[in-house]
Amino acid sequence: MSKRSLVIFALAAFSLAAQTVDRTKAPVTGPIPGYKLPPVFETKLPNGLGVVLVEDSRFPLVTARLNFQGGSKYDPKDMPGLAEAVGSVMTEGTKTRTARQISEETDAIGGSLNGAAGADSLTVSGGALSEHLTRLLVLMADVSRNANFPEDEVNLHKQNRIQSLRNERSEPGFLAEEKMAEVVYGSSPYSHIAPTEAAVGKLEPKVLATFRDTYILPNNATLIVIGKLPARADLMKTITEQFGSWQQKTLPPSPKMDTPAPKRQIVLVDRPGSVQADIHVGRLAPTRLTPEYFPLMVGNTILGGGANSRMFKNIREKEGFAYDAHSQYDTHRDAGDFEAVTQVRNEVIEPALKAVLAELDQMASTPVGSDELTNIKNYVAGLYVLRLETQDGLANQLNSMKALGLPNDYLETYTTRVRSVEPDQVLSAAKKYMAPGQAAVVVVGDASKIGDALKKFGDVTVTKAN
Predict the structure, then answer these.
(1) 3-state secondary structure of 246
(2) Of 256, 254, 241, which Cα lies nearest the Cα of 215?
(3) How many helices, marked H, and strands, marked E, lie in the chain?
């Protein structure tokens, strides 16, 4: 190195060393950009099938979703888990293809194909290399229109589901979620989050086929295709060839949503021998179509939406009551629910529950500071934009839009609406949906160990796990 270079290097090093950095303050977050959808084309076939095409030529891939309004809320009362079974088994055989043939054809196009049901909708999901889009659509049309639910595949689903159900019911967190759904939603269709073993035992091919013939229909569906697409006329011709002759039918009315009014109650699900207690405090909450959604969603993130949230920093970091402390706000098409959640040792059930209720009360009584609110809005908006970067992420968001009945501009206006949330809006939403006065408290644990402590908070109803 020359003397001149050494001098320049030394001066640069001295200049850097002379700069003072205040490490007590987090770096300022730059402006979070709004989200702009790629080019979107939307139409509908004569049989009622909605079609959404989104051009994304960054990669030679395509991602597809075929969404039906046919989720678990449409399950008969004596058959919880029916929609789930239909979604799982419909890709395991058709009138012309066995499960193995479907799997081999999917592998041959470098793709994936599966079905799954949520609370509101059932979705057939697929993906492949762009050059094989036609073959992917052929497979998706076949499993949707011609699934025959082979008896051996149905029996295999029943065996696997009973085993997984037993595993789920061995977890206190699952038992708490199950009981909270019953308490919040009452007798309405959202009150069950899983099947029963008795219902699984009654699954038969003809039962699944009846559900398919009732809800898996073109006039009850939207096909979403994202990726490097062929010419639109050619693609629409392929879609019409595969789905156009599918006959529409009259759909049954949507199930009635008769949810109970929120009220303060304490339910203890007795789990003898448990060395910890799972605490869930929650109540009914609004859907995404209400003006309260964004303030409550932002407020939920402030309260318990990550490692920088109030519950995490207080209940876990400061008090050491729990490894996990968070809150969650889940929305369906017709209702939603909010919960504050933690798991604690039996010995600290009383101070831990007090701490949870105190956090909820503070959200409902004290305005959020401007700095805290700004940081959370940046976090929420930034995370949202990141989730839409991949084809799969965008496909899932568009699928949710259709499942929940959201407007077409929902994705593009999301970050703006997050940024528009003000402290008084968060406080108003928190007063209505977070204040513990009308919240249900569900605790899973050993009643002989924690029952007396819970009685200090009010009357306790002790139940057994389902």
Answers:
(1) coil
(2) 254
(3) 17, 12
Cα gap 227→232, rounded to integer Å: 12
pTM: 0.90
> How far is CA 68 from each of CA 212, 405, 442, rounded to the nearest angstrom?
10, 12, 33
Same domain assignment for residues 325 and 226? no
> What would the two tokens of residue 349 be?
């059930």
SS3 state of residue 412: helix
Residues in the chain: 466
Number of domains in the chain: 2
- The Cα 27–Cα 312 span in angstroms is 22
> How far apart are the C-alpha atoms of 89 and 84, rounded to whole Å?
9
- Weakly modelled stretches of the chain, pLDDT under 50: 1, 3, 5-12, 14, 16-18
First to last CA, the chain: 77
210: left (phi over 0), alpha (psi -120 to 50) or beta: alpha
**What's the distance, CA 426 to chain centroid?**
22
By three-state DSSP, how is residue 346 classified? helix
CA-derived radius of gyration, the chain: 26
Q: Are 72 and 83 in contact (CB under 8 A)?
A: yes
Residues sharing a CB contact under 8 Å with residue 332, sequence separation 6 or more, in sequence order: 73, 119, 120, 190, 287, 404
119 plus 211 within the same structural domain = yes
Cα distances (angstroms) measured from residue 198 to each of 169, 183, 373, 414: 14, 22, 48, 42
Residue 286: domain span: 265-464
Asked if 281 and 168 sit in the same domain, the reply is no
Q: Could you give the CA distance from residue 383 to residue 221 in angstroms, rounded to a whole number? A: 29
Question: Do 199 and 290 reside in the same domain of the chain?
Answer: no
Contacts of 46 (CB under 8 A, 6+ apart): 244
CATH of residue 371:
3.30.830.10
Using DSSP bridges, classify how beta strands 61-68 and 265-270 pair: parallel, antiparallel or unpaired. Answer: unpaired
- SS3 of 331, please? strand
φ/ψ region of 306 (left if φ > 0, alpha if ψ in -120 to 50, else beta) reads left
How many other CB atoms sit within 10 Å of the CB of residue 134? 18
CB–CB of 388/344 below 8 Å? Answer: no
Supply φ then ψ for residue 93, to 5 degrees: 150, 140
pLDDT at 34: 73
Distance separating alpha carbons of residues 329 and 363, to the nearest angstrom: 15
Is residue 34 in some structural domain?
no
Q: Are 168 and 138 in the same domain?
A: yes
Instruction: Find out whether 109 and 135 touch, Cβ atoms under 8 Å.
Output: yes
Give the angle subtended at the CA of 416 by the CAs of 415 and 422, to the nearest 5°.
Answer: 105
